[in-house]
Each structure stands twice: as C-alpha cells, then as structure tokens.
Specification:
Protein name: Small ribosomal subunit biogenesis GTPase RsgA
Order of helices and strands: EEEHEEEEEHEHEHEHEEHHH
Largest sheet: 6 strands, mixed
Family: Belongs to the TRAFAC class YlqF/YawG GTPase family. RsgA subfamily.
CATH class of the largest domain: Alpha Beta
Strand order of the largest sheet: 10-9-8-11-13-12
Subcellular location: Cytoplasm
CATH architecture of the largest domain: 3-Layer(aba) Sandwich
Shape: globular
Strand content: 15-25%
InterPro entries: G_CP_dom, NA-bd_OB-fold, P-loop_NTPase, Ribosome_biogen_GTPase_RsgA, RsgA_GTPase_dom, RsgA_N
CATH superfamily of the largest domain: P-loop containing nucleotide triphosphate hydrolases
Number of helices: 8
Number of strands: 13
EC number: 3.6.1.-
Length: 293
Amino acid sequence: MAEGQIIKALSGFYYVLSEGRVFQCRGRGVFRKKKVTPLVGDRVVFQATSETEGYILEVCERQNELVRPPIANVEQAILVFSAVSPDFSAKLLDRFLVLVESKDITPIIVISKIDLLDGESKEEIARYVHDYRRIGYDVIETSAVTKGGLDELALRLRGRVSVVAGQSGVGKSSLLNALRPDLRLKTGDISTHLGRGRHTTRHVELLEVAGGLVADTPGFSALEFDHIELDELPHYFPEFRMYGEGCKFRGCLHIAEPKCAVREAVEAGEIPLYRYDHYLSFVAEMKERKPRY
C-alpha cells in the first residue's frame, strides 16, 4: 500500500501522484456504499496492481473542500487581479478574500499587467498595494511581459496546492504559461460577465508548476456568500478582527453599535474606508438573502 494525491479525475479513473509517479486508479465499491466521492486534491491510500495502475482503498480526512471547482485540500488561492484592462476592482477582490478566508485557505493577491500602468493609475495601484499589505496580505505585482514578480510567485507555489482565481481576462493563463511555457494554456478574451470567459477546461486537474500543484480550472465560479452566516463575516476581515477586540460589545457587527472600535478605526483612517463600505454592502446582501431551512 502507498499514499498519494489525486491530481486528475476523468471517466471514473483517478490519477494518483505518488513519489513522482502517476497511477491510474479505480475507486473501491466501498466508496459508493458510503457515498464518498474522491475529489482532485484528495490524499489517498491506494494499492498498486502494476507499474501504472491501482485502486484507491481510503480517502484521508480533508483539510477543506470547494464545490465549484470541486477540489479538496487547497492550501492557497492565487487571486489574480489586473491593474488595467479590466480595471482593478477592490470590491471584487474583497469578495474573493472573504470567500477564501471562510474556507481556511491562504490568499495571495497577484496584481497582473503592471507593465501597462502610467502615472496616475500607477499611484492608485500603489495605494491599494500599500493598504492590503498593511492589513497583512501577501501582494505580488507581476507582468507576464516583463517577467516582473514571476520569481516571487514561483517561490509561493513551491510545495503547495494552489487554486488560481480571478475575473476573466486578467491574465491567469498568461502568468501560468510564463512560469511553465510548455503548458500552452489558452488565454481567453475579457468577458463582461464575471467568470464567463471562454475557458476550455471542463475538468479539474492539478498541474505541476514551479515545484507545486496548481488547479487548472476557473477558480471559485460561485461567488455568493451562501455558506457564511452574518455574524461570521467580520472574522473574514483581518483588520476587523484586530480592532474588534476593543469593541464594547461581544459579537459587535460594527454597524451601529455604541463604542465600536472598528468604526473608530475607520474614522481615524486606520482602516481604509472602501474596505468598510464593501463590508457594509456584503452585510446588506446577506440580510436580503432568502432564509435557509
């Protein structure tokens, strides 16, 4: 028996990477009885029946799992946002950050196409970079053209399982192609609808890039906060967690409660106003959703 990780699932076969070799495995009938569906990213115990084939005996406990894309044990999310074309959207980034934080996945913010910036837009992006780094996020500025920031990104990928997410047209495929040219991933056109770019991937596959495994799939196609309760939302804003310890009331939602340390920090300019505004709009969105029974 051996251990490995599923890097691809296709037509009832699971492709398990173990010590540098890939085994084409079937799942045992016991999974169907237990209604366990192995996912790409699962760590498994398997029995090799030949040099290239085997069957999966056990799926190890998952660190986390995503529904869309269907993948398990993601350690970090590379959130790619372009500086221009499409324009940088802090609100969309904050939405992604909340979703990633809620799944206990480490976010890495990658700002692409920095070679296209000019004077005024350069200053604006520099302010955002400063703000997010101050909050504690890892931010890398990159260009697939000049290769700037690619070494930094490669270091973050090494030895980890990552999912790459972001709007269509921000250059996700271009960055991966720059890190591993033989991939030749198709680069899609900018789409006006979020995540509706012409992406050709129909199945999830973990690709070896820069010494790590990267999911080749449109990341996080579901961007709703369905699985998050309202009282959990403040926990997914790291700066709110920090300042929130000074609030008068436990369970403060930082909206209208008296002696709220988070609102005081916003007024003092210690928390960016746009981050707080995005938080309020997410609260409003969650209050409007239909109750779940």
